[in-house]
Amino acid sequence: MSPSEIMKMAEVEIFRGVDYGSDRKPIEGGLLDPRLGPPNKKCGNCATYGANYKDCPGHFGYLALALPVYNVGYMGTVVDILKCICKSCSGVLLKEEMRVEHLRRMRNPMLGPLKKTELMKMVVKKCNGLAANNRPVECSKCGYLNGSVKKATGMVAIIHDRSKFGGVMDELRPENLLIMNIPVPPTVIRPSVLVDDSWTNENDITERLKNIVQANARLRHDLTQDLPPAYAGGFKHSWDALQVEVAQ
Ligand SMILES: [Zn+2]
Ligand SMILES: [Zn+2]
Q1: Nearest bound ligand to the CA of residue 186
Q2: Does the pLDDT value for residue 227 go beyond 80?
Q3: Which GO terms describe its molecular function (predicted)?
Q4: How far is the C-alpha of 211 from the C-alpha of 8, rounded, in Å?
Q5: Number of domains forming the structure of the chain
Q6: C-alpha distances out from residue 2 to 61, 172, 178, 181, 233, Å
Q7: What pLDDT was estimated at residue 228?
Q8: Which residue among 119, 226, 227, 247 is least crowded, i.e. fewest CB within 10 A of its CB?
């Protein structure tokens, strides 16, 4: 799902890492927001359409990340795309004639998906060919020397020559390979179980989402600290932490 599809499907933005207030009522903007549907029998009716616990089908929310993170399922594709793109001017690392020729073939409506994947692999190979023996690839448009791109081992990250200079603001497209919004499922599929009058037991999904909301809030806070670019590492740490939470 694209970020805008996730938003369209949702009734409410979830941004608070708490579920109940001191009055034991679900907090608005929290993970058990009454607009997602009643989280259990005692919480009254759904705040979206007014149905009771039994009749409300549940509604989705969404969580807007302060900065995008990798979708672990698309890491390979993102690495391939980065291999083909100049880290300075964002142009494709192919000679212009070759780029036009490949684009023409790729847009051929008669070409099946398998052939397209093959063609894509060939383009990645060509763009990466020079970097294979650790030689940088020179961009034919701006002359920038592009080093190798690889998946980092043991963590959810991609290493390339710009990433070392904290070049974290590189614009990546297509952006849908990254995660910018996370759907928050209705409370019916992750009920808040009443243990007794003053205690509830939260579902694993709710707890997991809570960790993401809290990591996201820390990153948002760090971003507003207005640090000079040289201290970009300051929020990089909380960004990495958010990546780890989302990847779980
Ligand atoms: Zn409802
Ligand atoms: Zn370039």
Answers
A1: 1
A2: no
A3: DNA binding; DNA-directed RNA polymerase activity; metal ion binding
A4: 24
A5: 2
A6: 14, 15, 9, 8, 29
A7: 65
A8: 226
**Residue 42 reports pLDDT greater than 90:** no
Q: What ipTM was assigned to the predicted interfaces of this complex? A: 0.74
Provide the total of helices (H) and of strands (E) in the chain, helices listed first: 6, 9
Q: Which domain holds residue 233?
A: 3-69+178-247
Final residue of a structural domain among 145, 160, 175: 175
Q: Is the peptide bond before 186 cis (omega within 30 degrees of 0)?
A: no
Å from CA of 71 to ligand 1 middle:
30
Claim to verify: residue 46 and residue 125 sit in the same structural domain:
no
pLDDT value at residue 171: 41
User: Residue 183 pLDDT > 90, yes or no?
Assistant: yes
Q: Which amino acid is at 137?
A: V
What gap in Å lies between CA 112 and CA 4, rounded to an integer? Answer: 29
Between 67 and 168, where is the model more confident? Answer: 67
- Quote the ligand 2 centre to 68 CA distance (angstroms): 24
Ligand number nearest CA of 136 is 2
Angle between helices 113-129 and 96-106 (to 10 degrees): 170
The helix (run of H) or strand (run of E) holding residue 65 is strand 61-70
Mean local confidence (pLDDT), 41-46: 84
Q: pLDDT tens, 93-103?
A: 998 999 999 99
- Give the distance (Å) from ligand 2 centre to CA of residue 247: 31
Query: How remote is the CA of residue 7 from the centroid of ligand 1, in Å?
Result: 17
Question: Which residues have their alpha-adjacent CB atom under 5 A from ion ligand 1?
Answer: 37, 46, 48-49, 51, 56
Using CA atoms, how far apart are residues 181 and 67, in angstroms rounded to an integer? 10
